[in-house]
Amino acid sequence: MGLPPRITRQTYTQRDTILYALGVGAGQDMSRHPEDLKFVYEHGLEALPTMAVVLAYPGFWQKEPEYRLTWQKILHGEQSIVLHQPLCTTGVVRSEMTIDAIYDKGADKGALLCFRREIYDDASGVHLATVRQSSFLRADGGFGGAGGNAPAPAAIPERAPDMREEMATRTDQALIYRLSGDDNPLHVDPRVAAAAAFDRPILHGLCTYGFAGRALLKWLCGNASAKLRRMDARFSSPLFPGETIRVDIWDLADGRANFRVIGVGNSRVVIDHGYAEYDT
User: Fold this and answer.
1) Which of 182, 232, 251, 272 is catalytic?
2) Helix H segments across 24-172?
3) Is 182 a catalytic residue?
4) 1 assigned to some structural domain
5) 84 tagged catalytic
6) Is 105 contained in some domain?
7) Which of 18, 74, 202, 271 is catalytic?
8) What's the total number of domains in the chain?
9) Per the count of CB atoms within 10 A, which of 46, 63, 186, 195 is most buried?
10) Residue 227: inside a domain, yes or no?
């Protein structure tokens, strides 16, 4: 926590913007979803708001020896983005990453690592987005740090959802998504997956997050990218490439909503406690 901010710069193009959209499933069925065209075609191209999670991404930094983490046992816990400005389809961006908190749960329970990236346009200094993430360090608890809990997530209403969207992932979805910069080998290497107690590589949580973001954009924002302002989620269970998900959405009015992601094949909750804010 005493380390200085980790600075990352990225120059990205329309090709990168399109690749991210393909990585989260846009364009898979253009006959049923012609609205996806503007996310995968350079003419009239728009950036998906969830692309903020990969902009000026520092890579799988927890794997680096200086942090002394058991990276094979790390799982993504929670994710949040707040969009201060609509994302451009090209640009040069800078992120400043800081570690906000580490909660020690004990030697047999691991620890929770919370960190944040502030993303800026590198030339103008305009603040584009705040990206927060927590990771479960399943094998790194008991180091004598402070205990406690992270802030409680959003509660899901105890009623039927107002909207539902079923979305299929591809068997090669993780291979496409990782080209946007998330190169954790857990999502591609069977040996690493086995070391983490999975029988095969799992899909990136942030890939599923991007699928959910597309559903929120469709149902709440009329696919207008600039209208989605915030998206929080807690990852509950792993998803495997090729599985189909269902995104349940509760519209709370006044530009707020809750959501949950379910694995269709086994009714497993994949993302829970979802919360979104949008312009009405």
Assistant:
1) 182
2) 37-40
3) yes
4) no
5) no
6) yes
7) 202
8) 1
9) 186
10) yes
